[in-house]
Predict the 3D structure of the following.
Amino acid sequence: MVEARMPLLIVGDEIYKANAAGKAARLAELLGMPVTQVRQLYANFPETHPLWVGNTPAVNLNSLTFPKNPDVVINIGNKFQHNGAAPIVPRGPKFIDMRIDFASMGNVMLTEVPLVADVALGLDDLYAAVEQLMTPALQAKAAERAVEVKKFSQQARTLRALVANNPEWDHSPLIADRVTYEIAKFADPDAIIVNEAGSVAMHSFDFNPIGGRELFYYYGSHLGSGVGTAAGVKLARPNQQVICLVGDGSFIFGPTALWNMARLELPVIVVVYNNHAYSGPHSRVVANVPSGRMVQTGQFVHDYLGNPDMNMADIARGFGVAGEVVESPAQLREALARARAHTVDGKPYLLDVQVARRGVGWAEKPWVPPIRIAGIRQKRV
Ligand SMILES: Cc1ncc(C[n+]2csc(CCOP(=O)(O)OP(=O)(O)O)c2C)c(N)n1
Ligand SMILES: [Mg+2]
């Protein structure tokens, strides 16, 4: 690690669970080492830290913008959920793997150094071991590297802020990025965000497991757990604001815990990104089967949830939870204030935010299968 040209630290959920994010940051700082995270449930590292280079966007480290060629990769507590044939840590760099979950170590990726440890204790040991090797020359090298990493992280921060320059920023229905931006501005400094809005980019929150905003995501693409998770999180952490972000498709897989929120007075704010669509599956069909009949005809059978539109605020009312439909950015701000008032009062609240569908191949009024059983039945029953 001390001799590496460009070491890279991957953090994972064992850090959150062991409350060890501070220790991971200390190790990164000792080496001037960039830090990333591959898909996990929690945010395991302060996102405002200058050594944070962002989440790994796709399935392996090659998808990182920076660093491009790490020569040593160290994992602390990441479970590495592979969902493709390519190993997350590609062949090439030396790989050091520390986790308590030993059963899945060394059986997918070539592992130079397996370290089985509780990551909080393991980080203490590792820090002590590395520190005693740090000569002034190595310290200077680490400091130089830290400057390089910081240059990247600052530039990335500047570029991310450009999200607000989108020409559709003030549009109604809202673009998803605007919704996220407004919620991030609104959320408490120690809010917990339960995120089941899978195809929505989680920008602007600046998650920080060391006393800042926390994230609860989900692993297996098993939609329907978001609202229930938010109810459970509020039960466990009554003194932190809990905001559930959920797509309309995901929401209708599992709105039931709204009832628990009403019954147990769980003051959770639920925000539905309602684009009246399975937008992710739509885009995946276009990407994966571009010559298919659905793309050729523009008749997508699986992705439009409108006609009739579902009113999520009405659905919430049926479970005993107040809420409203939100049409514009200005209304969103007012609605969030009403949501806060409800939660201060001990009540949950739901916002059904009308969000624009994005991606190619969407018609203004999407096609729906022309099945009308009433007209073809033989008996008017
Ligand atoms: C239980 C379950 N059924 C089906 C799927 C397949 N699936 C993946 S994304 C998705 C659509 C989600 O729609 P929405 O929450 O509205 O998000 P959007 O794609 O519109 O942003 C579906 C049905 C799944 N992941 N889980
Ligand atoms: Mg949707």
User: Anything to note?
Assistant: The chain has a mean pLDDT of 96. Residues 136-161 form the longest helix (26 residues). Residues 44 and 142 are 22 Å apart (CA to CA). Residues 166-354 form a domain with the Rossmann fold fold (CATH 3.40.50.970).
